[in-house]
């Protein structure tokens, strides 16, 4: 018999990473912060009314309503899907709310609840369609519902405006709490809630798992379909919240509100570092990207720049945001 | 005698930042020989191929083709010089036709119009395939073919480029015994026609059957080249692993306990029919058969991934229904998927996140994830299966095949399971890691799990199993108690001509 036995030295695995400056600074968020500073400097350069607290504070009201939807959109994109029906969902929820109040004469509180339910149902329908018809991509499904929801909004309101809401309803769009816009507080709260949801809960972990490898996730016991439906429903629900803020700020609604919102929202998420290939992204980056795009729009609005210019800049930023990390790794390889 | 060798490598070194992937490599390939190249994963085989095929340029050293010094700037250069490679994972265009795949990059054009000459290409494709003794329709779409057929197409493609040297990278890895036989025949035919072949494989059978010489790589170096009939199996393993492996298959120390999993006449039309078997606690039930015999389908039905039409699954005597993997694991059934990269692991995640993925609910309260608990669990189970890595934060992508498989096993261990279904757990894993996986499998059985061990490799089925099921065309063709069973008996059951007819009423 052979005497010498295989000597196994038990292997240990480290559970602590040594501190590394590179890891601390090699983050997309730093780049986004730089871009944000550049946008603020640009704003102060083109307009004397831009860079001061009241201006920056109230400027958020212009873009934070739609930015609310960016959180679930980031989750959807992390799961390799997309939802381009959110703009239409905003319109439909808003129109339902307005017509229940004006035409049906229901109390405003009930109309608001109906608005939230409408949004959630829209999202639920998206989610169910995507999960049940796997051969259809999310782009096609939500392209369909985008047209569908908008169409229903037109049937309900027939290209009319509806308004005349009670005075307290204006609080959503214009109200301040301790000198801070209510909308900004809601946005900050949602950012924290979604930040925790995505990065500190099992739900978020599973969302990332699905985005990285849906099959392996399913084989590991992740209920992929259920999570997808929930996230799409969240997108619908937050679209309805956007509808409330937007309708309140405008004082009335039409079936054509929130057109092209989906593009701005997708742009915010992508600039924020959400990988279009799925599986990657952080709420912090998305939040900074919201302010970059938002303040850019606000600054250009202050000096009455044509909105086409805004589109050009956002387009260029988007392409840059995709190209810069690539450039970095290309330089490293050289 | 310079002309004896079609390809010669003189002191080839390839250095990447921080590592030497190939160190002072000497290699000679004769005309019309099949030369086996063996070595563990990470030994430098892939770098070696990439240098010959022009994917990488060597840092140092010279390469001679037909006695002339050459250097390749890119893979096209190598292809033009008559070097072709066929990879384990076929790198074809799945949505295109056979003809399109064969003539990709060297299409035949009409002499005057310069348009694609489809008629000629289809004709030549058919002739090529005919020469290889295959009747595949050149107009068939690539993804309708089996892996074995796709490999034949790759070989046809290599021949159509008039390759003088063909490199085959683990071509038999995904093939059944019969398909391998077909590949051997074609390879030998090519050799007899004067083509030189470098044949890379983990399977010793391949080497003994085909090669006249064998070169072993270890730690980026050429350990030696031998004539195949002059080297023993043991000596080869020592050369490859660098140490002696006294025993590949661990001893069995315990006898089986009570029946845990019982499958009763499970049927799903077209996949499998009338499957009945049982596994006891502490027992390893081997399941083998040709690829496509329905083994994976049975596992996936038990694991709740796919549905079955008829039959019953009992755990500890009481029937269970698993409509999803999640329910199956709750019932106590775990499954190690055959394709660990696609189905088993999130490869660009850390070891930690992979290990805990199936068990997140235990590591959280009200969905809030406890990071410290997570780390602890990853460490505990990662060390239990002896993953070779520095920290739990290493990405799975950076690990070798064997260590990736250990991560997948560790993930299963985090769950409270009674039954573990292992679907080809050693596929694409080198011999050192195989022994480690066998050890783990035996430990699982000893810890009281009921283990179903699915494999196409006869030696490991015979070496590991307490009992053996042989599947054939969706049915169980034979069951053996593993005492005095031989490879021939299993092969006969797996391929035997008369089908086991059992009418289910």
UniProtKB/TrEMBL annotation, chain A:
Where the protein is mainly located, per its record? membrane
Cellular component terms, GO, for this chain's entry? plasma membrane
Q: Which UniProt keywords apply?
A: Cell inner membrane, Cell membrane, Membrane, Transmembrane, Transmembrane helix, Transport
InterPro entries of this UniProt entry?
ABC_transp_permease
Q: Name one GO molecular function term.
A: transmembrane transporter activity
Give the stretches traversing the membrane: 30-51, 63-79, 86-104, 110-131, 138-157, 169-197, 227-246, 258-276, 283-303, 309-328
Q: How does it sit in the membrane?
A: Multi-pass membrane protein
> Which domain of life does the UniProt lineage start with?
Bacteria
Where does this protein reside within or beyond the cell? Cell membrane
Q: Which residues form a coiled coil?
A: none
Q: Name it.
A: Autoinducer 2 import system permease protein LsrD
From TrEMBL, chain B:
Entry's Gene Ontology cellular component terms: plasma membrane
Q: Does the keyword Lipid metabolism apply?
A: no
Q: Which UniProt keywords apply?
A: ATP-binding, Cell membrane, Membrane, Nucleotide-binding, Repeat, Sugar transport, Translocase, Transport
| Tagged with keyword Metal-binding | no
Instruction: One Pfam family, please name it.
Output: ABC_tran
Compartment(s) where it occurs, according to its Swiss-Prot or TrEMBL record: Cell membrane
Q: Where is this protein chiefly located?
A: membrane
PROSITE patterns found in the cross-reference section: ABC_TRANSPORTER_1, ABC_TRANSPORTER_2
SUPFAM superfamilies, from UniProt?
Answer: P-loop containing nucleoside triphosphate hydrolases
Molecular function terms, GO-annotated: ATP binding; ATP hydrolysis activity
InterPro entries on file: AAA+_ATPase, ABC_carbohydrate_import_ATPase, ABC_transporter-like_ATP-bd, ABC_transporter-like_CS, P-loop_NTPase
Q: How does it sit in the membrane?
A: Peripheral membrane protein
Q: Which residues form the ABC transporter domain?
A: 7-244, 254-498
Transmembrane stretches in the record are none
UniProt name for this protein: Monosaccharide ABC transporter ATP-binding protein, CUT2 family
* Species of origin: Terribacillus aidingensis
Which classification does the entry list for the species?
Bacteria, Bacillati, Bacillota, Bacilli, Bacillales
């Amino acid at each position: 018999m052979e005497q010498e036995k295989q000597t196994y030295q038990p292997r240990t695995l480290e559970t602590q990473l040594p501190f590394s400056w590179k890891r601390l600074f090699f983050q997309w968020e730093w780049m986004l912060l730089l871009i944000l500073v550049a946008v603020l400097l640009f704003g102060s350069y083109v307009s004397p009314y831009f860079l001061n607290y009241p201006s920056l504070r109230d400027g958020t009201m212009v873009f934070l309503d739609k930015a609310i939807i960016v959180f679930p959109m980031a989750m959807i994109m992390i799961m390799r899907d997309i939802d381009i029906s959110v703009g239409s969902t905003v319109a439909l929820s808003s129109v339902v709310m307005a017509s229940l109040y004006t035409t049906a004469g229901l109390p405003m509180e009930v109309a608001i609840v109906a608005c939230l339910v409408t949004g959630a149902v829209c999202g639920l329908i998206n989610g169910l369609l995507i999960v049940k018809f796997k051969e259809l991509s999310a782009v096609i499904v939500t392209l369909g519902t985008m047209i569908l929801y908008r169409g229903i909004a037109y049937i309900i309101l027939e290209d009319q405006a509806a308004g005349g809401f009670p005075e307290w309803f204006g609080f959503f769009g214009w109200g301040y709490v301790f000198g801070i816009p209510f909308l900004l507080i809601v946005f900050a709260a949602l950012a924290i809630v979604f930040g925790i949801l995505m990065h500190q809960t099992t739900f978020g972990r599973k969302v990332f798992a699905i985005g990285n490898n849906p099959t392996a996730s399913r084989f590991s016991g992740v209920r992929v379909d259920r999570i997808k439906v929930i996230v799409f429903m969240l997108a619908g629900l937050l679209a309805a919240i956007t509808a409330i803020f937007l309708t309140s700020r405008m004082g009335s609604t039409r079936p054509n509100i929130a057109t092209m919102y989906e593009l701005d929202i997708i742009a915010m998420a992508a600039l924020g570092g959400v990988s279009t290939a799925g599986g990657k992204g952080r709420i912090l980056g998305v939040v900074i990207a919201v302010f970059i795009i938002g303040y850019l729009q606000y600054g250009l609005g202050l000096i009455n720049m044509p909105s086409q210019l805004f589109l050009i800049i956002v387009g260029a930023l988007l392409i840059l945001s995709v190209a810069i990390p690539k450039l970095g790794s290309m330089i490293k390889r050289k | 005698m310079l002309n004896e060798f079609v390809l010669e490598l003189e002191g080839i070194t390839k250095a990447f930042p921080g590592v030497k992937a190939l160190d002072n490599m000497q290699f000679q390939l004769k005309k019309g020989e099949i030369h086996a190249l063996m070595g563990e994963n990470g030994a430098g085989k892939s770098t070696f191929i990439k240098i010959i095929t022009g994917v990488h340029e060597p840092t140092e050293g010279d390469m001679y083709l037909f006695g002339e010094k050459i250097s390749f700037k890119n893979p096209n250069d190598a292809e033009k010089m008559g070097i072709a490679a066929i990879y384990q994972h076929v790198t074809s265009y799945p949505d295109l036709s056979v003809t399109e795949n064969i003539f990709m990059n060297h299409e035949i054009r009409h002499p005057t119009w310069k348009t694609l000459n489809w008629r000629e290409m289809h004709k030549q494709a058919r002739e090529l395939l005919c020469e290889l003794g295959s009747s595949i329709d050149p107009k068939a779409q690539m993804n309708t073919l089996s892996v074995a057929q796709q490999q034949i197409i790759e070989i046809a493609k290599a021949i159509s480029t008039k390759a003088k040297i063909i490199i085959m990278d683990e071509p038999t890895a995904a093939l059944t015994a019969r398909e391998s036989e077909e590949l051997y025949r074609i390879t030998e035919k090519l050799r007899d026609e004067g083509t030189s072949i470098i044949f890379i494989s983990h399977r010793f059978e391949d080497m003994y059957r085909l090669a006249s010489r064998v070169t072993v790589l270890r730690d980026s170096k050429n350990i030696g080249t031998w004539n195949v009939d002059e080297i023993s199996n043991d000596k080869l393993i020592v050369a490859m692993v660098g140490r002696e492996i006294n025993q590949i298959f661990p001893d069995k120390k315990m006898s089986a306990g009570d029946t845990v999993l019982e499958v009763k006449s499970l049927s799903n039309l077209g996949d499998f029919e009338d499957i009945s078997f049982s596994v006891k606690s502490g027992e390893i039930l081997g399941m083998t058969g040709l690829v496509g015999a329905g083994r994976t389908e049975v596992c996936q039905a038990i694991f709740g991934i796919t549905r079955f039409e008829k039959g019953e699954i009992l755990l500890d005597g009481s029937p269970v229904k698993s409509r999803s993997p999640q329910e199956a694991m709750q019932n106590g059934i775990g499954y190690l998927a055959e394709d660990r990269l696609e189905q088993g692991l999130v490869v660009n995640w850390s070891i930690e996140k992979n290990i805990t993925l199936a068990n997140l609910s235990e590591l959280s309260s009200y969905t809030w994830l406890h990071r410290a608990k997570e780390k602890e669990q990853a460490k505990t189970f990662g060390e239990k299966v002896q993953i070779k890595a520095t920290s739990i934060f290493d990405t799975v992508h950076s690990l070798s095949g064997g260590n990736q498989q250990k991560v997948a096993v560790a993930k299963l261990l985090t769950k409270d399971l009674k039954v573990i279904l292992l679907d080809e757990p050693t596929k694409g894993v080198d011999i050192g890691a195989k022994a480690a996986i066998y050890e783990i499998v035996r430990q699982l059985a000893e810890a009281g799990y009921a283990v179903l061990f699915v494999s196409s490799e006869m030696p490991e089925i015979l070496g590991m199993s307490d009992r053996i099921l042989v599947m054939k065309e969706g049915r169980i063709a034979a069951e053996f108690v593993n005492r005095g069973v031989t490879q021939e008996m299993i092969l006969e059951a797996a391929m035997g001509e008369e089908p086991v007819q059992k009418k289910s009423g």
